[in-house]
Amino acid sequence: MTAAPRPYDFRQPQPEPPEVRRQVLAWLVALTNQWADLGRRHWAFPWQLCIASLRRCYLPAVFQELPDNLLCYSVYWSNRAASLLAVSRPLALGLTLALLGEKCDNLPSDRPLTDVELSLWEYILEQRLLATARICWSSEPTPQWQRGPRESTPQLASGLRQHNGTTSAVPGAEAVVMLADLQTEPPLHEGRILWLLTEAVIQEFFPANRAASAPPVSPQDILQEIPLQLVVQLGQTHLPLAQLEQLRGGDVLLLEQRLDEPLVVFLEDQPGYLAWPGRLGTQRAIQIATSWEA
pTM for this one? Predict the structure, then answer.
């Protein structure tokens, strides 16, 4: 017999202090930028994550909202503080297929991962995503970010039961988490990462009094972390429209670029450098010769 659905709890806990929210948002922005750069550079995976929402919620209400197609893991920040990280299956599958060399212009359809895919995905989660997260952290204490086993029943996740910041071992109506909802932007629609941060995580790693003692972050420091796109121009040529309309596969075009001339490297659509083409291992590479102005 199917249990009756639990009525939605419209109550909302008190919002977090502004200093805490600013700290968590700053960390999430740096984290999502690093993850996006990691996917583009290493897997040709064109994903970009946006912070859809960041809010404090009661745990029962969060569990009612969780979709069924999530892969959930306890992530331990320290011996006293843990969280729950949930990733949608299509996104996990897309990252896994990209690691195997497949081109992913769109996220694959939702389906259970095979044992091999699940093993590869958990390698990506632990050795790529969580490892990259450490790069974004610049204050003390430093989180461990130790991944626990996959939680088939998130409500019973050991991290939430033991590290929810309450005196009860079982999350009750008053157990509160900060929910970070990260979603992929086009063209990779419907990818989602949910990170449930317990009160123990917030108190230990995002204390309300840190902002007063932390040195201010300058706009220049923020700009230094923004990834920029470099484009190498192999060459160019000019053709009449009549010849363009007759181009077919296998045709050879002569470029206005001598072999003894360096290539132009564009930085955000502006000429920035001159470089020589080559290769590094099995990938194409360039060697910077000089800046454009020089």
Answer: 0.65
